[in-house]
């Protein structure tokens, strides 16, 4: 989770041609993640010296884009020389897009701001099939820059980000909510990986030999999140590399991920295995985490927003019919306690405390059972389970 709190200072401004919106001042104070020093995260993105290099590179690029002197190929090679693998992207009303610049990256939930060099804002409806042009000058630069990055043998994520014309059809999410996502990250077809691409690339390819050599060289790299926030173990799980995952687990890889990650982070190895419904891996990881950490994967029932709006309208009408009785007591808040089965159906409803009108309580619960729809609870393995749920309602003298 460090990126959301830490890396906004390293990203190019959304409108790269308007530099006034970006401050060049270094971050003030001791940067931290939930009270911990970022240097404890074991993450390259928490390396203040590296971040400073990124900031300087971004400032230089903004100036060159503004005066028209930016050379895309030279800038890409300069970034690769310093280990900066971020691609050029545009921000849109719905998230980050590299497709504006000819590249498709497959990441569950989309790209995060700190994974790209965002140089333009593309309005809604202008990002379609990689053919959009947020600005002719910037678009040409971005496409050439990204092409140079992907063509260079030093770029380690050619199996995660690919040219739009080589990406093929986007994967479809399973219609069955109980089915796992086959490959939440990247492309199944992998190219050649070099040793310098690191543990993550070796894990994605299931290269046990390379994993062993790289761990001997740098044992501390076993739980380092990469540009996308995934550790080598997370990549091994995401790419169905069970022998690689076993090798990493034997070497004491953490199922939680990096030092500053949590069990429920989207990029944590355990959470990825859960999204994929890969029960064997989850069982293998379970003894390596605390009961509390494992329990945090559980999901309570989640109400459907549209049904909740409908229920609120029904509640308003019901309160009007019982207005006299309800106003006899000061305004209060009441819990509607439900039991929800594996299919998301409400099997029981009880109001606590009871109101002044048993008839009102009975009708209210009846409406809730009839109207409110639930996504069922899931246990730590992602399996549907019966569970309790709660809604808070308020009525009385001032309502």
TrEMBL record:
Residues 1-20 form the signal peptide. The keyword Transcription does not apply. Keywords: Signal. InterPro entries: Ankyrin_rpt-contain_sf. SUPFAM superfamilies: Ankyrin repeat. The keyword Signal applies. This is Ankyrin. It comes from Novosphingobium resinovorum. The lineage of its organism: Bacteria, Pseudomonadati, Pseudomonadota, Alphaproteobacteria, Sphingomonadales.
């Amino acid at each position: 989770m460090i990126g959301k709190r830490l890396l906004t200072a390293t990203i190019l401004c959304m409108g790269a041609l308007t530099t006034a919106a970006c401050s060049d001042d270094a971050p003030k104070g001791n940067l931290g993640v939930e009270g911990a020093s970022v240097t404890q995260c074991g993450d390259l993105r928490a390396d203040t010296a590296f971040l400073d290099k990124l900031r300087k590179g971004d400032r230089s690029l903004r100036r060159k884009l503004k005066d028209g002197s930016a050379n895309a190929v030279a800038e890409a090679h300069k970034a690769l020389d310093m280990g900066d693998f971020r691609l050029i992207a545009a921000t849109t009303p719905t998230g980050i897009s590299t497709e504006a610049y000819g590249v498709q990256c497959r990441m569950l939930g989309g790209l995060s701001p700190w994974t790209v060099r965002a140089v333009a804002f593309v309005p809604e409806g202008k990002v379609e099939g990689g053919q959009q042009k947020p600005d002719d000058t910037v678009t040409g630069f971005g496409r050439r820059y990204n092409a140079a990055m992907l063509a260079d043998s030093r770029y380690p994520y050619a199996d995660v980000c690919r040219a739009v014309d080589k990406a093929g059809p986007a994967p479809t999410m399973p219609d069955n909510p109980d089915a796992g996502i086959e490959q939440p990250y990247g492309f199944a077809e992998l190219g050649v990986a070099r040793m310098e691409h690191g543990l993550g690339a070796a894990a994605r390819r299931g290269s046990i030999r390379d994993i062993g050599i790289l761990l001997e060289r740098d044992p501390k790299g076993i739980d380092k999140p990469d540009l996308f926030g995934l550790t080598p173990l997370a990549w091994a799980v995401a790419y169905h590399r069970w022998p690689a995952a076993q090798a990493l687990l034997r070497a004491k890889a953490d199922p939680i991920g990096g030092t500053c990650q949590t069990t429920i982070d989207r990029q944590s190895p355990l959470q990825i295995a859960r999204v994929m419904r890969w029960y064997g891996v989850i069982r293998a990881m379970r003894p390596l985490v605390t009961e509390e950490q494992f329990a945090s994967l559980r999901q309570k029932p989640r109400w459907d927003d549209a049904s909740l709006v409908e229920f609120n309208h029904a509640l308003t009408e019901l309160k009007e019919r019982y207005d006299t009785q309800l106003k006899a007591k000061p305004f209060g808040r009441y819990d509607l306690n439900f039991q929800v089965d594996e299919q998301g159906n409400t099997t029981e409803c009880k109001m606590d405390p009871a109101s002044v009108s048993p008839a009102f309580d009975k009708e209210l619960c009846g409406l809730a059972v009839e109207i409110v729809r639930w996504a069922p609870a899931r246990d730590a393995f992602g399996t549907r389970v019966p569970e309790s749920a709660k809604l808070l309602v308020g009525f009385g003298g001032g309502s």
